[in-house]
Amino acid sequence: MDFTQARIIIKSIIHNMIEKEEQYVHALDVLEAAFIVPLRSASPPGIRSDLEGFIDDVFGGIMNIRECNRRLLKMVHLRQREEGSVVSAIGDIMFEAVFEFMSPYPEYIRRRYPIAEKRLKDELEHNFEFRLFVESASRLSSGYGGAPRFHLKHLRGHAIFTCQIAF
């Protein structure tokens, strides 16, 4: 493989990474719009205990991760504006992002995700109204900006997959 072919491959990988990050951040925006906002505005709330505590336990860590990924995208988009639409290098940005992600991702995986899984499982098993809400929100999630239909578990678990790749 010559230098030109290698540069084309690198640019393609960078483009793909940017596209996937944009999709992930959009998916987390859909998570907020399709699940969190309606849960907060539901009357009655549909949660058997403290609604805000439940939302923080189940979604709090993932929203922190979304903010990290948004900052990463801002840095990449700034680079795109500086270099033109085709970015040739982002190693420095990714290096900086790894340091920023070192706190929220492991925190989410080690501490927040297991708590979220337990709270979500308990609520789904013991609260029929909440189970209906989640099923309905999953179906309606496709109406947010052309997003595919999302399953709550998939959206929350993607951070673990991302962390395994990054670390």
Structural class: mainly alpha
Which word captures the global form?
elongated
Low-pLDDT segments: 163-167
β-strand amount: under 5%
- Kindly, what is the distance between the CA atoms of the first and last residues, rounded to a whole number of angstroms? 29 Å
Q: SSE order in H/E notation?
A: HHHHHH
Number of helices: 6
**Mean pLDDT rating:** 82
Number of strands: 0
Q: Can you give the helix content as a percent range?
A: over 70%
Walkthrough of the structure:
With 167 residues, this protein is mostly helical. It has 6 helices and no strands. It has helices at residues 3-41, 51-83, 91-101, 104-126, 128-140, 152-166. The protein starts with a helix and ends with a helix. Mean pLDDT is 82; it is low at 163-167.
Quick description:
The protein is mainly α. It has helices at about 5-40, 50-85, 90-100, 105-125, 130-140, 150-165. The chain is built from six helices and no strands.
What's the SSE blueprint?
Elements: H1 3-41, H2 51-83, H3 91-101, H4 104-126, H5 128-140, H6 152-166
Helix pairs in contact: 1-2, 1-6, 2-3, 2-4, 4-6
What keyword list fits this structure?
disordered C terminus, 167 residues
